């Protein structure tokens, strides 16, 4: 087939294209992934019984702000990576803001207690299950994010996969906040971040395989 | 350069809004730019340039919904062309060629080449390998120019199945090319 003929073929009866494809797909990721994580958390883990009291403590909102800030950063980065020729700006550096903030809080909290209590702040009661639970709750958003990216045009598949995975991890961690009883910054700065890093790493590995177009 | 960008952008936006003639003109202009761009970079495999021009045009068409009106068309199309070229070189395990990371978008528009060579890979042959649910809608609507309603009647498919068939069929064609 000659190139001229290919061009006429592509242009013939080409459907009009509605703007906003990236936004629409990412909205689906948030709605479907968020609903999936929430329902999974409800059915499998349950909401923490003292949620109403916990919500009166500032630390509860700080804890929620960690995945929420990472969610927004990952969402912006994913939206840029989904489009050819759009610079990602300082997405990776922007991640350091919430991470640095929680580590600063963790350092302050570790410094404020005697040495023998520090391990308790770091490990809490649930360190062994926390990263795994967050990763599991991120699965619906992970599937949705890869579906969304596959319908768009990432030219850097590893980065697009990593930020899609991080987005999913942040959605999962946000839902997990409603179950998890831990409130200590050293715990959050370690196990929550690890839980979100699992889907991000999985996304970085899967991206080059699944996001070709 | 600025003028060229504005002209391409206006053609693409009109094309995305459904103006077939403007879209065709956009693809023609872009095809010539891609040919010059790729010919300059794939001097070692000149016979494959036209194949890659075609593959990139299909990619531009299939991902045209990712273009945002706030963005220069040049940056968008250049990024697609680079992506497709790198993908091609990887597929061929040609390692050394790609090394101009700081290349300017303006250079992308700098030259065009309207003289198409013969493509080595015949897309018509690949098209024949698609399943009927993809192939028939493409042949009837895109090659014979029938309307959705006519194509639906001829194939016995529903109108939405015909539309989906065109869309998925062109994606399947791109996937066959990548193999």
Explain what you see:
The complex is a heterodimer of chains A (213) and B (179). Chain A contains 11 helices and no strands. With 213 residues, chain A is mainly α. The model of chain A has no long low-confidence stretch (mean pLDDT 97). Chain B is an all-alpha fold and 179 residues long. Chain B folds into 2 domains: 108 residues, Rna Polymerase Sigma Factor, Chain: A, CATH 1.10.1740; 56 residues, Winged helix-like DNA-binding domain superfamily/Winged helix DNA-binding domain (Arc Repressor Mutant, subunit A, Orthogonal Bundle), CATH 1.10.10. Helices cover 68% and strands 0% of the residues of chain B. Chain B has 9 helices and no strands. In chain B, α7 packs across α8 and α8 packs across α9. The model of chain B has no long low-confidence stretch (mean pLDDT 92).
Describe this structure in a few short sentences.
The complex is a heterodimer of chains A (213) and B (179). Chain A has 213 residues and is an all-alpha fold.
């Amino acid at each position: 087939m000659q190139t001229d003929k290919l061009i006429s073929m592509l242009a013939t009866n080409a459907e009009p294209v509605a703007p906003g494809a990236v936004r629409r797909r990412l909205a689906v990721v948030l709605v479907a992934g968020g609903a999936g994580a929430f329902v999974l958390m409800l059915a499998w883990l349950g909401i923490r019984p003292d949620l109403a009291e916990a919500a009166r403590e500032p630390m509860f909102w700080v804890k929620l702000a960690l995945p929420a800030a990472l969610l927004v950063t990952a969402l912006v980065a994913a939206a840029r990576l989904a489009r050819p020729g759009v610079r990602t700006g300082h997405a990776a550096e922007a991640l350091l803001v919430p991470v640095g903030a929680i580590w600063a809080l963790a350092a302050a909290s570790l410094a404020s207690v005697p040495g023998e209590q520090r391990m308790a702040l770091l490990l809490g009661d649930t360190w062994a299950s926390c990263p795994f639970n967050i990763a599991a709750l991120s699965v619906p958003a992970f599937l949705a994010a890869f579906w969304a990216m596959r319908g768009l045009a990432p030219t850097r598949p590893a980065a697009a996969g990593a930020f899609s995975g991080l987005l999913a991890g942040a959605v999962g961690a946000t839902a997990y906040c409603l179950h998890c009883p831990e409130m200590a910054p050293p715990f959050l700065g370690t196990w929550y971040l690890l839980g979100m890093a699992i889907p991000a790493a999985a996304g970085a590995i899967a991206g080059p395989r699944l996001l070709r177009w | 350069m600025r003028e060229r960008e504005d002209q391409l952008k206006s053609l693409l936006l009109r094309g995305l809004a459904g103006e077939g003639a403007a879209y065709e003109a956009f693809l023609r202009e872009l095809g010539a730019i891609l040919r010059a761009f790729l010919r300059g970079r794939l001097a070692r495999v000149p016979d494959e340039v036209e194949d890659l021009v075609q593959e990139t045009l299909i990619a531009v068409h299939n991902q045209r919904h990712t273009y945002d009106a706030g963005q220069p068309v040049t940056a968008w199309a250049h990024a697609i062309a680079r992506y497709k070229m790198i993908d091609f070189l990887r597929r061929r395990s040609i390692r050394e060629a790609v090394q101009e990371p700081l290349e300017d978008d303006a250079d992308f528009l700098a030259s065009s080449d309207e003289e198409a060579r013969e493509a080595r890979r015949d897309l018509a042959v690949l098209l024949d390998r698609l399943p009927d649910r993809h192939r028939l809608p493409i042949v009837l609507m895109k090659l014979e120019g029938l309307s959705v309603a006519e194509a639906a009647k001829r194939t016995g498919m529903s109108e939405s199945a015909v539309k989906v068939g065109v869309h998925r069929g062109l994606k399947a064609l791109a996937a066959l090319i990548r193999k």
